[in-house]
């Protein structure tokens, strides 16, 4: 069963506009959520995170929103820039046996058009 | 560089061969994780070490997969008698014990022919 889902495999946005990437999860035990960005032939790079006790976290152009009742989170990028073109993974975590165990979604490929 | 490094970056193996994939975590990071990423999917957890102790290996797909971290730093993921379904990118990540953030290496792309 897919505990973390990103239902949009791809998204295309005009430069300067807002990009919104969505993620749904099913397990209520997840207490921390992260977004990673991945360029081709590189490993995922941490972007932004949010604890389950918050509903919003902002870092520059990136904002993550968490709706616990809907088990839904989203990543907003504004304004979008060509360098934001990458695959974005959301991940949910729970501490199991003393370590954060990450469960990833399938990823959304974001393309920013000039 | 101070990041996580992995070698080799690419590996082609004939079906039935054994392979060994290496991960050098960030210096001082206590936790080390291995993930498998199939084409078009997100990374999937394989196993986790805290120092030299393998605390969770619930994600290893079969007993052909074996991981070790004997001195609590470098780790090796070994796959015996490789099968075509083992073709994937194998990612290593490390983290400081108290941090939530995992830092990933570039991965090893394994192709089994």
Which helices and strands, and how do they pair?
The complex is a heterodimer of chains A (114) and B (113).
Chain A: E1 4-5, E2 10-14, E3 19-25, E4 32-38, E5 45-51, E6 56-59, E7 62-67, E8 72-77, E9 86-96, E10 99-104, E11 108-113
Parallel strand pairs in A: 2-11
Antiparallel strand pairs in A: 1-3, 3-8, 4-5, 4-9, 6-7, 7-8, 9-10, 9-11
Chain B: E1 5-7, E2 10-13, E3 19-24, E4 31-37, E5 44-50, E6 53-56, E7 65-68, E8 75-79, E9 88-95, E10 103-104, E11 108-112
Parallel strand pairs in B: 2-11
Antiparallel strand pairs in B: 1-3, 3-8, 4-5, 4-9, 5-6, 7-8, 9-10, 9-11
Cα-based radius of gyration of chain B, to the nearest Å: 13 Å
Unreliable spans of chain A are none
Q: State the shape of chain B.
A: globular
Amino-to-carboxy terminus distance of chain A: 38 Å
Question: Helix segment count of chain B?
Answer: 0
Q: How far apart, in Å, are the first and last alpha carbons of chain B?
A: 33 Å
Q: Give a count of the beta strands of chain A, DSSP E runs of length 2 or more.
A: 11
Report the largest inter-chain contact.
A-B, 28 and 24 residues
Give the oligomeric state of the chains in this entry, treating copies of one chain as homo and distinct chains as hetero: heterodimer
Write the element-wise H/E pattern of chain A from the N-terminal end onward: EEEEEEEEEEE
- The count of helical stretches of chain A stands at 0
Shape of chain A: globular
Q: What sequence of helices (H) and strands (E) makes up the elements of chain B? A: EEEEEEEEEEE
Range of strand content of chain B: over 45%
Query: What structural category arises from helix and sheet content of chain A?
Result: mainly beta
Average pLDDT metric of chain A:
94
Question: What is the number of beta strands of chain B?
Answer: 11
Helix coverage percent of chain B: under 10%
Q: What structural class do the secondary elements of chain B suggest? A: mainly beta
Largest sheet of chain B: 7 strands, mixed
